[in-house]
Amino acid sequence: MISKSVACLVAAVLVLVGGAPFVAAQPSGGVVEQFGPNAWTNWGVGVIKAQGFGVPPRGVDSSAQATVLARRAAIVDAYRGLLEASLDVAVRSRTAVEQAGVRWDTIETQVDGIVRNAEILEEQQYPDGRYEVVMQMPLYGPTGLGHAVIPHVVSPTMPPAVAPMAPMTPVPPRRPGYSPIATPPAPPDAYTGLVILVEGVHLDRSMSPAVLTPEGDVVYGRGWWKPGQFDPDLANNVGIVGYSSGAGTDSRAGAHPLVVHAIGISGPPQSTFKTDVVVSDEDAARIRDANAQGHFLEQLHVDIVVQP
């Protein structure tokens, strides 16, 4: 839901822009997700971007005034795109937040405030007077969207580490001749992190994912932490998992990760999003044994690699 103040600004933009058929440049990459025509989230870099457009209104007194008004319209349009994208990202964590006893409308208010701190990344004016602005805000960090979500996801008030989950969507059979990515040889105490490969299914990226067994036991993620088990500021600054499009590509799991293949995806039963990764009982035991010695989960050294 967009706040009344932002809705009024959007209405002003529509008057100024006059329905001009602008089309944003489409970013590419395995960790970039489009939200609407002019906004997108780069999960790999950890930013949300939006393009805003404006045209000068008719009847202005000078070209300078026309430029100011077109720029203002472009900025408001970009704010609208950031707000809608931010709420779309945050709503994937809605079930987890509400399970922690937090009203969702308070999260919407926080998101509205965070978006207002976004920065202008690029701007330009075209010869015909049109104005374009690209704005950006971080997913995590001191001014990031995570501050509205992460504290509740890692809260000790989250439900126990065994909870109902939505029916699992299995990973499809691997193609003939497929060679799975193996864990680099290393003793359990030398593993620097965890890489989970998700192949052949669409996973909804989220700020509150969980790694589950087929029975719903939480191996890692929401409901897993205990008070004093980790630094909550670290989660606010980097998120509880990283996302990438290839094993070993900008991985936060370090040089010698434990690599496992997901057997399916799922999510909370109250949610329509498939944000959770399901691993086999055997791999769950391997993760727990390795972490008992390496403690990489407490350091949030977890990377989810999504491949087609």
Describe the fold and architecture:
- The relative contact order is 0.15.
- Residues 1-28 have low confidence and may be disordered.
- It is built from seven helices and 14 strands.
- Helices cover 28% and strands 21% of the residues.
- With 308 residues, the chain is an alpha/beta fold.
- A five-stranded antiparallel sheet has the order 1-2-3-5-4. The protein has a five-stranded mixed sheet with strand order 6-12-13-8-9, covered by helices on one side. It has a four-stranded parallel sheet with strand order 10-14-7-11, with helices on one face.
- It folds into two domains: 4-148, no CATH class; 156-307, no CATH class.
- Helix 1 (4-17) packs across helix 2 (63-91) and helix 2 (63-91) runs antiparallel to helix 4 (104-115).
Order of helices and strands: HEEEHHHEEHEEEEHEEEEHE
What is the average per-residue confidence, as pLDDT, rounded to a whole number? 84
The dominant shape is: elongated
Strand order of the largest sheet: 1-2-3-5-4
> What structural class results from the helix and strand content?
alpha/beta
- Count of all domains: 2
Topology:
Blueprint: H1 4-17, E1 32-34, E2 39-42, E3 47-54, H2 63-91, H3 94-99, H4 104-115, E4 119-125, E5 131-138, H5 150-153, E6 169-170, E7 193-199, E8 210-212, E9 218-221, H6 232-238, E10 242-244, E11 257-261, E12 264-266, E13 276-278, H7 281-294, E14 302-307
Parallel strand pairs: 7-11, 7-14, 8-13, 10-14
Antiparallel strand pairs: 1-2, 2-3, 3-5, 4-5, 6-12, 8-9, 12-13
